[in-house]
Amino acid sequence: MKYLDEYRDEQLARRYLNAIHKLATKQWTIMEVCGGQTHSIIKYGIDEMLPKKVTLVHGPGCPVCVTAVELIDKAIEIANQPNVIFCSFGDMLRVPGTQTDLLTARAQGADVRMVYSPLDCLKIAQANPQREVVFFSVGFETTAPGNAMAAYQASRLGIGNFSLLVSHVLVPPALKALLSSPQNRIQGLLAAGHVCTVMGYWEYEEIARVHRIPIVVTGFEPLDILQGIVMCIRQLEEQRPIVTNQYTRSVTKEGNQQAQGLMKEVFQVVSRKWRGLGEIPASGLGLSTQYESFDAEFKFGRAQYHDEKNCECIVGEILQGLKKPNQCPLFGNPCTPELPTGAAMVSAEGVCSAYYRYRYLSEAKS
Amino acid sequence: MNEVNLNCPLPFNQHSTVLLSHGGGGKHMRELVENIIVKAFDNPTLRSLHDGAVIKEKNARFAFTTDSYVISPLVFRGGDIGSLSVHGTINDLAMCGAKPLYLSCAFILEEGFPFTLFQKIIQSMQQAAMACDVTIVTGDTKVVERGKADGLYINTAGIGILEHSFDISPKSIQIGDAVILSGDIGRHGIAIMAEREGLSFDCPIESDSAPLWKPVRELFQERLSIHCLRDLTRGGLASALVELASSSGLSIHTEEKAIPVKEEVAGACEILGFDPIYVANEGRFVAFVSKSEADRTVDILRKFPMCENACLIGYVGERGGKVFMKSKIGGERIVDMLSGEQLPRIC
Q1: From A356, which residue of chain B is nearest by alpha-carbon distance?
Q2: Residue ranges for chain B with pLDDT beneath 70
Q3: CA A364/CA B1 separation, integer angstroms
Q4: How far apart are CA A212 and CA A241, in angstroms?
Q5: Coil, helix or strand for B122?
Q6: A338: domain range?
Q7: Same domain for A11 and A131?
Q8: Can the peptide bond before residue B73 be classed as cis, meaning omega within 30 degrees of 0?
Q9: Which of A269, A355, B79, B308 has its Cα between 20 and 30 A from that of B147?
């Protein structure tokens, strides 16, 4: 298929792999930021084709996985109210809260609907004026503009029975937190191509400078990722800690200004708790005061945050590249995609889930 | 900057109610069947967990199977619930290596269901049965209150006869066997999804719903040594291969490049975030045959319109009950059974 097969070509992949073999003279540890990239890497077996000198660390870029458990509990609490139609993207539905998930709530009678676009919720709200329609507004900077558009349109059209339960997270603050950790061993970053399509990559220049780390904005197809690794290793070998752009067919330095403008109007930067990482200041988006009346937490009460119970899950160490998922004592038993214990096992794009689905289990705990 | 807090919360760990994924053809369904149903009715025939039961009576062997059809929408591109309910049960018999003979049909109708549509569906069942030389010999009807049956549900059961001496089952799969896929995958699932969600394509995708007995019969008539057959239904190609690898205790090695997927289906899967190997089919199967007979099997199957894209997709190995797939760029991964429903991703 056009625009896909070209990026999955075996011979070109070999050429990039040969280039990586030639370029890498030292041990290098590179983190791919986005869950979509992690998924591609594990699905296509890219990490196993790389020379032993190059280690990939799988980053925190799965918005489903990092959504705080308290917000999922709040979503289920709202969905269970008789007058509510609760709408969500598909993969949030089976993410477990402390007691249950949205699919189970639906099985027990809640009106939970899967939507493909947040704007579909406005149509549902207009068709059901007596009921409250709530949309679970989740994601990184990638989904934020589309979700902002739903609030903007609702305001413009005066749709008062629509609100958003917002759990947006921002990539740069999470990267800064990980790179500032005393245990950090990440030397290069593959930034998330779609986040940068919206935001551009100007924000990353400060990170590259302060943490002296090369950052390559990278796409999601196997050849994108291999090319991103080539660029990153070249910069590491040449000691050039700057931001470069592999994903030029989609990303510019400034990003999508219109989308950013809409996000600025509808959202404001807030502190946010990340599942598996804890609270990171100024790392999320919440509705701005002007859009407060479309905030589901304003209508239905704020989510109550509590201390997370410690368990043996090592997701924090995995996200810092200190350990691989199959070194976790819980991996595969009892933690599986059906009954996840840890954040990175809950969504298809979580690193533990990708390992579980695509890797031979006998290699676990090795 | 706060220090990274390295822990995670413990979520709940069991389901107290049935979820839609318990009917999705993946791990949840397998748990429901094995832990509740097989446990209660336990017997050697049921335990084989094949598409149908093979029963020996005097010197003859019969296959017996049943299936319920709850599809929405009732009419879709390439078929309707009527033709589907005949093809599905015929295919289950064919996968036991049995010639389909007789079907039963049971209808659960909802109050207010239009007779014109009911007649159209009945006619479609009749035509499908006639085309396969199968007779519908008994049935039942029930009507329930409005809102209690999504319009119409159909159950069919079927009886067929085995006219050969092969034991068509996962136990018969041998190391070195060739794995033949009867056609391109994912059309039924994407056609239904497109109707349900109002997705439109330049070239609309038609369901692959088709009866598979005739191509299977031809394989037997040509005296090929068939070891196992399995039709690909809800969980797609992946779930069928994983189940067979697990029940045979052998490994299956396949290549992503070898698996035919129509361009429209591949495109829809990319947009929705689906992997085509997990998407539903209603007219496709895999056959395990001796390696030396792989080419002949493919040639014979390709004579039938529903199998015109038949091809070799891999071999059986000895690496213990798993499915391995070589990715398009040459890396290797395992293929696991679908966990829950395949849900569209956020981004």
Answers
A1: B336
A2: 1-15, 340-347
A3: 34
A4: 5
A5: helix
A6: 315-363
A7: no
A8: yes
A9: B79
**pLDDT score for B21:** 79
What is the CATH code of the structural domain delimited by B50-162? 3.30.1330.10
Pick from A116, A210, A333 the residue to mutate for testing the B interface (most B CBs within 10 Å).
A116
Across A39-53, A215-229, A318-332, B321-335, least confident range:
A318-332
pLDDT digits (tens, 9 = 90+) for A228-264: 999 999 999 999 999 999 999 999 999 999 999 999 9
Q: Which of A338, A352, A361 to mutate to test the interface with B (most CBs of B within 10 A)?
A: A338
Cα separation, A19 vs A264, in Å, equals 42
Q: How many CA atoms lie within 13 A of A165 on its CB side?
A: 28
Cβ A181–B327 below 8 Å, yes or no? no
Domain B170-335 CATH class label: alpha beta
Chain B touched by A356 (CB under 8 Å): yes
Whether residues B343 and A142 touch (CB distance < 8 A) is answered with no
| pLDDT tens-digit series, residues B239-263 | 999 999 998 999 999 999 999 999 9
Place of tokens 């589907």: B84
Instruction: Kindly report the nearest CA distance between residue B21 and chain A, in angstroms.
Output: 9
8 A C-beta contact, residue A271 and residue A68: no
* Whole-number pLDDT of residue B45: 87
**Beta strands A278-287 and A267-274: pairing type?**
antiparallel
Residues A146 and A76 in one domain: yes
**CA–CA dist A189, A183 (Å, integer):** 16
Q: Residue B38 has what DSSP assignment?
A: I
For residue A95, what pLDDT band results from cuts at 50, 70 and 90?
confident
pLDDT exceeds cutoff 50 at A12: yes
Distance CA B174, CA B189 (A): 31
Domains of chain B, by residue range, sit at 50-162, 170-335
For residue A13, the domain's CATH number is 3.40.50.11750
Helices (H), A128-201: 144-157, 171-180, 193-199
Q: How many CB pairs under 8 A join A and B?
A: 183
CB contact under 8 A, B327 and A222: yes
- The answer to whether the Cβ–Cβ distance between A311 and B8 falls below 8 Å is yes
- Give me the DSSP letters along B198-256: T---SSPPPP-----HHHHHHHHHTT--EEEEEE--TTHHHHHHHHHHHHHT-EEEEEG
Burial A151-173 (b: 16+ CB within 10 A, else e): bbebbeeebebbbbbbbbbbbbb
Predicted local distance difference test score (pLDDT) of residue B319? 82
Task: State whether A162 and A259 are in the same domain.
Answer: yes
Residue A320 has pLDDT above 80, yes or no: no
- Contact call for A63 and B347, based on CB within 8 A: yes
Domain membership of residue A306 (yes or no) is: no
Between B5, B14, B329, which is nearest A44 by CB? B329
